Automatic annotation (TrEMBL):
InterPro entries, A to Z: Aminoglycoside_PTrfase (IPR002575), Homoserine_kinase_II (IPR005280), Kinase-like_dom_sf (IPR011009), Pseudomonas-type_ThrB (IPR050249)
UniProt protein name: Homoserine kinase
Catalytic activity, reaction form: L-homoserine + ATP = O-phospho-L-homoserine + ADP + H(+)
Lineage, uppermost ranks: Bacteria, Pseudomonadati, Pseudomonadota, Gammaproteobacteria, Nevskiales
Pathway: Amino-acid biosynthesis; L-threonine biosynthesis; L-threonine from L-aspartate: step 4/5
Protein family: Belongs to the pseudomonas-type ThrB family.
Native organism: Hydrocarboniphaga daqingensis
Top-level EC class: transferase
Keyword Transferase attributed: yes
The EC number(s) this enzyme carries: 2.7.1.39
Domain Aminoglycoside phosphotransferase: start-end pairs: 28-251
UniProt GO MF annotations: ATP binding; homoserine kinase activity
GO biological process per UniProt: threonine biosynthetic process
Gene that encodes it: thrB
PANTHER family associated with the record: AMINOGLYCOSIDE PHOSPHOTRANSFERASE DOMAIN-CONTAINING PROTEIN, AMINOGLYCOSIDE PHOSPHOTRANSFERASE DOMAIN-CONTAINING PROTEIN-RELATED
Keyword terms, alphabetized: Amino-acid biosynthesis, ATP-binding, Kinase, Nucleotide-binding, Threonine biosynthesis, Transferase
Amino acid sequence: MSVFTKVSHDELVEFLKQYPIGGLIGFQGIGEGVENTNYFVDTHDGRWVLTLFERLNYADLPFFLGLMDHIASRGLPGAMPARTRGGDNLTTLNGKPAALVRRLVGQSVLFPTLEQCVQVGRALGDLHVATASYAGHCENGRGAAWRASTGQGLLAHVDADTRALIDDELAAQTQLDLAALPQGVIHADLFRDNVLFVDDRLTGLIDFYYACNDALAYDLAITLNDWCVEPDGVPNAERWNAMLAAYSSRRSLNAAERAAWPLVLRAAALRFWLSRLWDWTFPREGDVVHIKDPDAYRRILVHHRDNPPRGLLI
């Protein structure tokens, strides 16, 4: 969530006329995230999040917006996309695909409590169960092929230690076949800034624009690596075990997932280390751009490499 494409007051007023949501009261750019342009928008009929898609095209977006409809209609705390007077949930603003979704109540948390980790684990399990009936399909654009090509593309621009780590981890990851594990629609980016709380009550799962079809265990690993790891890259055993138990109360991992788990954790860490390292090395221009520190995920990856878990629990 950054601002790469500016939207003026007059442009937004004109854009909103196609929605039955009242007139514009105010709007503000959102600086977090790295992919799309996002604004908070207030109208006389509520509070919204406007997204202009910088990389996704019109053909890609029905999967994501349909998924959000699917999730919200099944009682999960997801944002329902707004529809125009003509019934469309995908429109155009300043030459970019655009969507408007209801802004959910709550705030993201920086330092999660044990109860919040429990609720996230339970919600992720519920999400994996609910999306089993979603008919849409989207390949993971940041899967194994992307990780390999991105890693190779960075080698000429990083120091010797980083090159050695990328090379060695990419070689190790050839032993992992995520396609052989139970599949489904995954969020793929369920970080702390994509979950909303009011106190310890989970009120929103947001930003489904990385969602795709991939291994369910991989989605769980992504979530654990963000929510349950300390700044030094070491998992917090209490939060980790609580989230795993909560997830398992909704969906249990099978024997194949358990056997692959050490490499799945590493794949999840590698994916975000490489994407952040790429953005750090080749920054994009924008009015408000937030680039996250790649070293945080390097530390997580190194810890998982040096301390392979003997089971799911820490």
